[in-house]
Amino acid sequence: MHLDLDAFFASVEQRDKPSLRGRPVVVGGVGGRGVVSTASYEARKYGVRSAMSTREARSRCPHAAFLNPRFHAYRDTSVAVMAVLRDVSPLVEPLSLDEAFVDLAPTGLASYDDDSVRAFAEEVRARVTEVTGGLTASIGIGTSKFIAKVASDLDKPAGLVVVSAGGERDLLRPMHVTVIPGVGPATAERLRRAGITTVADLENVSEDELVRLLGRAHGHGLHLLARAEDDRPVVPERETKSVSVEGTYDTDLTDRRLMEGLVSRQALNVAERLRKSGLSGRTITLKVRLHDFTNLSRSTTLNAPTDSGPTIARLARGLLGELDLTGGVRLLGVGVSGLADWIQDDLFGEEHPQDEEPVEDLPDLPDRRTWVPGMDVVHEELGRGWVWGAGRGIVTVRFETAETPPGPVRSLAADDPALTAWKHS
DNA sequence: TCTGGGGTCCTAGGACCC
DNA sequence: TCTGGGGTCCTAGGACCC
Fold it and tell me: Which of A103, A116, A118, A273 is most buried, taking the most CB atoms under 10 A from its CB?
């Protein structure tokens, strides 16, 4: 099952502000360079769409209410919806605040005939409307994620579409290739030049040809999806891979000192979010969009993960210094990736970019994290602990203490004598 | 003054290792 | 005095999603 809340941000605003009900509402960036996140159905009548510039939305529908997003309200509402879904099945995969897949296999539905499934979905939808204070959802149900997602889109808003097993390919054939997730404007254009516009066209192209046209992963994936072959599981927990902050400025920036200040502030912001999530990362990336929309990125990778604002800020400013910014900058951003879910404490006092630290000094250790739960370590000062993770010259150990199982995490240099036994094993 | 912000995934080339 | 084949990691850029 795929569930999608209708015009989510705009609907929450209309729910919370009765004066907006029945009126066109546009949620998004209201500044000079903002874009539309969500338009209410009343605003869509005037041609206002997601991703359109707010400037254009204003000219199409000047009497709409233009609102900045209130993410906390959307998050609270989303949490309530996801709770309803998790009550239905433990296998819920949120795709965003307003969308999720639910694997219905564990529901104990007595039968999977269309009528039972439809009645079941109506019930889910009624509960979603109830806990959200009146929001509507569109639901699609099918034999795979792909089909469920296509189905939920067929009858918006407040739709419910069940695609019977066996009917998948007939449903897809007449559709444009862009119904396939992963086929956006660039891929669609490449396919069009090869004479492929519908899923039916796509079905008639060999996998080899698609790989030649679009690359290995994309070509292979499209070959399968065009035949409605999709065995991707519903994945309830997904690990965060990166954390970033970026901003577009109303006028292009030309003052490097100002840019350094803005980048530093973004870095502190990223670091705070990392710490709140108990994350730290090794790769710091600076993103720049120039006045002419050219995107640049520069990154550097540390030997050990960090969640320190000043460290990230210093490195990001350094990356900014490498770039030619003639003509002005419209966007700056800072991101951290290569995340570790174990905490790096201040072992070295400061992190070192790779080219500043001689690699020969690092002890011989696997350069991927390896998990060796239960492996005992005895340390002179910290007592007894067990190895939690290791890599790049650092071993992280959880030490048992009387007061706090599972105890504090400490990082040790890999050549710490306490680790000898562990390394040999 | 056309074109956001938060993400994910893929590719290609180069460095490096055994 | 000519030059493999497997692999990983890093960087930069780009497509795509909501």
Answer: A103
